[in-house]
Write a structure and sequence with these properties.
10 helices; Four Helix Bundle (Hemerythrin (Met), subunit A); globular; two-stranded antiparallel ribbon; 2 domains; mainly alpha; Arc Repressor Mutant, subunit A
Length: 230
Amino acid sequence: MSKTEILVQRVKQMIDSHGYAHSDRLPCEREMCQTLGVTRNQLRRALAELEGQGLIWRHVGRGTFLGARPVLNLEDVTYLRDRVKPAQVVSVRFTIEPELARLAAIYGKKADHEEIQHCADRCRNAPDWRGYEAWDNKLHHAIARASQNQLHLYYFETLNVVRRSVVWGQPRKTIKPADGYSSFHEHDVIVQAILTHDADLAAHSMMDHLRSVYSRILPSMNLDIPKEYA
C-alpha cells in the first residue's frame, strides 16, 4: 500500500471518528495537516483520491465537504442543458480552457503542479473508461484551480456541470483507453508546459487537445476555433 493510500485510510478514520454527516464541512487543510502530522501536499493527494471516489468534494474559498459534489442550482443547469447544443458547449470550452492553462502556467504553485501531474498519471493508469473520465475531469479542474483566479474557476465549474449534463452519445468499444490513446500524450504536453511556466505552449496545447477530443466525438461538426489558435 502506498503512502497516499495509507493516508487516505487515515483521513477516512478521522472522518468516521468525528461522526461527520453528509454535506458537513471538514476541518481546514491546516488543521487536518496538524492532526494527521503530514504536509499540505501529502494531504491534498489523499483528498484528491477521496474526491475521485466521490466521498468528498472541495469548493475553492469554502472548504472541503463530506459527500459528492452537489448541483447547487439544478433548475438552472436543466434550463441550460435543454437549450444549448453540444457545439455551443465546445465553443465555450475553446474560449475558456486554453486561457486557464495559460494562467496555470503563470500562476500555478508547487502544490498545483503536483496535483496536475498526479491527475494526468491517474488518467493513464485508469482501469476503465469511467475511471479515466473521472480523472480527466479532475485534471481539467486542477488546471482551472491553478489559475489562482476564482472568477475564472466559477465560470469553469458552471461550464463543467452543464457539459456533463449534455448527452454526447459517444460509444466505447473497449473497456479502457488503449495504451497509445492520444489524450495521454496531449495531457503530457499540457502538463509539461504548465510545469515549465511556458504559458503560450500551455494555451496552444490545451487548444490542440480539445480540438483532438471533439474531432473524435463530433467528427461532422465544424469546430469554431478562436482566431488566435486557428
